[in-house]
Amino acid sequence: MAVTTLPLHEENHAVLIANLSPRSMGKTTDTGMMGHAFHEAGYPVQLWDADESEHLSQWHEIAGFPFEVKKNATARFAEEYTPLGERGIDIVDVGHTENHPHIADSVLKVADLAIIHMEASMADYQRMHQPRTSTKVETMVRRSALDRPSRQAPPLWVLLNRVRSNVRSEREIRDLLTEAQYNVFTVKIPMLDEIKQATGFPVEKAARGPFGELVTEMQNLGLVKNA
């Protein structure tokens, strides 16, 4: 897709990040950890639970996040969304695109950045890029341009998740994504028990690990402004 333009937001407006995946690929865990990493980096943060499972909201209720988590797993997200403002970061845990495309379509109408979360496996690559029974996520992002005032789709990036160390599959999947013209973050989220099992527990020092590195990479790419 090779979209590298900056998010289409006003100078001091919040950036809305849409976290997407066709199925369960660690998206909710990533959303919570990203929110904490941005918060620890000095950003005002607001999370949105747009997944009917409400796992993100349940995590917040149990662990007590230091920022608000709002629920809106409906096709009216775009109409009902209230931006955080003041250079803040809004992050949306979007329901799986295979099962809830109507929610993803609505979120993408107002998103400044779309991130696909996927494991570095051929099965997940095919499900994301070559689905047989659902709409490709890239297609959903592209078609959102028709419903946006700018008539431009938000930038689309891929975050490799649950990556095992020193495995050939990561390099192969990264090459396939690059050949297909996807933007792929250099930072990857490793397969670690403390990340995999984070949901349901308080989060500390998220900015000191891979999620902090992800925030830095997003700043360097111009996808978010410095806090």
Summarize this structure as a short list of keywords or feature phrases:
single chain; about 230 residues; alpha/beta; seven-stranded parallel sheet; disordered N terminus
Q: What can you see in these coordinates?
A:
- The protein has 227 residues and is α/β, with parallel strands linked by helices.
- Helices cover 34% and strands 16% of the residues.
- The chain is built from nine helices and seven strands.
- It has a seven-stranded parallel beta sheet with strand order 3-2-4-1-5-6-7, sandwiched between helices.
- Helix 1 packs across helix 9.
- The longest helix is centred in the N-terminal third of the chain and has 14 residues.
- 44% of the residues are buried.
- The N terminus is likely disordered.
